[in-house]
From TrEMBL:
Cofactor requirements of the protein: FMN
Classification of source organism: Bacteria, Bacillati, Actinomycetota, Actinomycetes, Micromonosporales
UniProt GO molecular function: monooxygenase activity
Organism: Paractinoplanes pyxinae
Protein name in the entry: Propionate 3-nitronate monooxygenase
This protein's record includes keyword Transport: no
Reaction equation(s) it catalyzes: 3 propionate 3-nitronate + 3 O2 + H2O = 3 3-oxopropanoate + 2 nitrate + nitrite + H2O2 + 3 H(+)
Family annotation (InterPro entries): Aldolase_TIM (IPR013785), NMO (IPR004136)
Organism superkingdom: Bacteria
Keywords recorded for this protein, A-Z: Detoxification, Flavoprotein, FMN, Monooxygenase, Oxidoreductase
Entry similarity comment: Belongs to the nitronate monooxygenase family. NMO class I subfamily.
Amino acid sequence: MRDLIRPVVVAPMAGEPSTPALVNAALRAGATGFLAAGYKTPQAVEDEIRAVGGAYGLNIFVPGLLKDARAVERYRELLRPEAERYGVELPAVRLNDDDHFPAKVELAISYGVPLVSFTFGAPSAEVVRALQQAGSRVLITVTSAAEASRAAAVRPDGLIAQGGSAGGHSATTSPAGFTGDTTALEVLAAVKGDLPVIAAGGVAEAADVDQLLAAGAVAVQCGTAFLLADEAGTRPAQRDFMLSGRGTSTVITRAFTGHPARALRNRFTDTYSASAPIGYPAVHHLTAPIRAAAAQAADADGINLWAGTGFRSARSGTTAALVARLMPGSQS
């Protein structure tokens, strides 16, 4: 795996930010880039795979089960004022949704995707073996020593140690107790073992990369640092929110998707974080039309502004320039 991973990894950012253009630009700049399969249809994922080349990666969400449909139904009622605000209909609660997991794994196998990472748990050993036999190196994202132990049991090629400071969804498999108070350095120390580990979370500058590499990481994964990249598909409303300085802090919230994620604080997180249930991806589907309408209206207070604790250091510019300022030893 070490032959495929560069010191800086541009993280998969589900939704709009991770575009083929971002991945290709990262590769040209000497970083490793990941596509994000989460939320997308298999056809959309295949189109993106066909648009990239080189030692790229693909991130896939591991499906879970909806354990409390009644809680999600209650949350649906709480969201009615938001639906009215944006003039949209709330969909019925989806009880089962695997995010096309088998089809996305099959695409990775068919195309021999060089690096395949998983979030929200470990896939089966059979899935890992099938990918490895197709030539893929498999990575599993973990947030604790216990998760790392379970991941190691299916024999992946490496782990991604995700600190609670990371933006977007946490990979935690214990969402009820997740507080997001761990750093990438702490999780790296907790999960280090025989497998290579990529560290992720809260990386704002080259000094952070240097520190994590010195602590034993084979690479450092950065997402928030690339949200404002020219090649990223980040929504204009989020770009404007970040560039205007309106973002003052981040929060851990389940309000948008039913799973803990770190986002810039806005009206939606203030209103719904305390009442949002555990229920990914059912809650994600409930809020999807609200978020789409808010994005269309350029209303940053109604969308999920995923970002990590290092958001103040995010800069606009080409991916090449942003990679350069994060590379080990950089003084910029």
